[in-house]
Amino acid sequence: MELSESITHKNGRQRKPVVSNPDMGERESKLQVEGDEEALLPNSDKADGQTKASRGIKGELGNVALLLFLYVLQGIPLGLAGSIPLIMQSKNVSYKDQAYFSFVFWPFSLKLLWAPLVDSLYLRQFGRRKSWLVPTQYLLGLFMLYLSVTVDGMLQADGQKGPDVITLTAVFFMLAFLAATQDIAVDGWALTMLSRENVGYASTCNSVGQTAGYFLGNVLFLALESADFCNKYLRFEPQERGIVTLSDFLFFWGIVFMVSTTLVAVLKKENNKQHLNKKKPREETQSVMETYKLLLSIIKMPTVFTFCALLLTAKIGFSAADAVTGLKLVEAGVPKEQLALLAVPMVPLQILLPLVISKYTAGPRPLDVFYKAFPFRLLIGLEYALLVWWTPSVRQEEGFPVYYYAVVLLSYAVHQVALYSMYVACMAFHAKVSDPVIGGTYMTLLNTVTNLGGNWPSTLALWLVDPLTFKECQGAPGQTCGSVEEAGLCVREGGTCVTTLDGYYVESVVCVLIGLCWWIFFGKRIKRLQEESPSAWHCRVAK
């Protein structure tokens, strides 16, 4: 099921919809500030000083493999970041702590803020893209090596002291920030690394590489880290620990980052032909400022401003289901590695759904599909709440029966249909209305707003679970469970804190009601935006 937006995109994670955080998630169109013209340069078919073969992709398999590998590296820290909430949930952290950690998934949605800098500021002698790629990957490797030594202490829960959530959030936020910066650099490099006839393979490398990297850092890691999974499927004699630990995994990939980055820095030459016309630093700075002014002018347009406001509020109704459900299942005893593995059979569905749905969004009114799928996704949120409520009653001593996982898988699959219907419709509308003169910047702005519209409700939903939850102390008269300290005192007095009202269920109902109101009052408004003339979407300052 959709454990979080970041898991399928992460994605944010959120990744951006568990192999993505819609939540690697909703995938963004790439900002191409000064990038579109790179793909059209007359000398862009040359790399490493040699003419690229024009006989198809065979002559560029090395470049395609390098791009694919760079995107895989990018997915590793995102996958690891997506696994930490599940690990923390098994250590009984509060949902307020989970809300803090959810900020880790914001950088990929905010990278538009510094993408113009990455595109415009660089060292000519070293290469436009390598100037950012090499240092960011070195820093990623160093952060991973640092975490390999310290992460166990950060996650350690001794007595009343739980995991060091603030430090974990800060470190993994930096990992996500660096991965987002690396993504900007790799996206730009792909435009000149591949010839014009093969540049379309860049998006394939992006999609496949990020998904594979997220799978390695999330699904594979959680499976190999689980003692139960390893003892059941991979070992002849049971042991207390999994095959790998988080420290081992971080150390291995830290070394991979350091070694591979060194090889790229030394052996891979960047195409510098486009720099024969050298620009002055002042002109480059002006380019950055002009890009930010352009973004501001786009947002000020009435139709764009209205559309952005709708995008920022549309996903409030889905926030409890997307952000909290997976954590509640782990809290109910479902093994985190089993939840992660449910993503595997979903991969073919996630590949086929956009192809099928695009047939219905290719016309002049793609947001009609968005409007029709909206209430179904709200209903799935209620079904998720019922699933969480049903979970403890089917738990057995040896775990959960097969039919339970079949129900979870079916719920996840139905949710994916609704999610991708809305996502593909939204992306189709973005492509339809974006001003072709500034298409890259325009598309990325709309996709950034779309992702932010999923991030902030998810963070808020996690934050509100604890305040909306009510517990009472049974077995110790006069004691309460209103706080961590009071709960500890209740236990010391011989009592037990029992949940009388779970805030998750309150949130689920409230979110669906808010979403239903949004659909009734604003759903038709978003459909009417399709009736606006093309000139209403074109930026007046574009030339």
Automatic annotation (TrEMBL):
Subcellular location, record wording: Endoplasmic reticulum membrane
Give the family from UniProt: Belongs to the SLC33A transporter family.
- Basic and acidic residues bias spans: 24-33
So what does this thing catalyse?
acetyl-CoA(in) = acetyl-CoA(out)
What name does this protein carry? Answer: Acetyl-coenzyme A transporter 1
Gene Ontology CC terms: endoplasmic reticulum membrane
**GO molecular-function annotation terms?**
acetyl-CoA transmembrane transporter activity
Primary localisation category: endoplasmic reticulum
Q: What GO biological process, any one, is recorded here?
A: acetyl-CoA transmembrane transport
The residue ranges crossing the membrane are 64-87, 99-117, 137-155, 167-186, 249-267, 294-318, 338-357, 369-390, 402-425, 504-522
The superkingdom listed in its UniProt entry is: Eukaryota
Task: State the organism named in the record.
Answer: Labeo rohita (Indian major carp)
- Where is the region Disordered? 1-53
Alphabetical UniProt keywords: Endoplasmic reticulum, Glycoprotein, Membrane, Phosphoprotein, Transmembrane, Transmembrane helix, Transport
Q: Describe its partners and assembly state.
A: Homodimerizes.
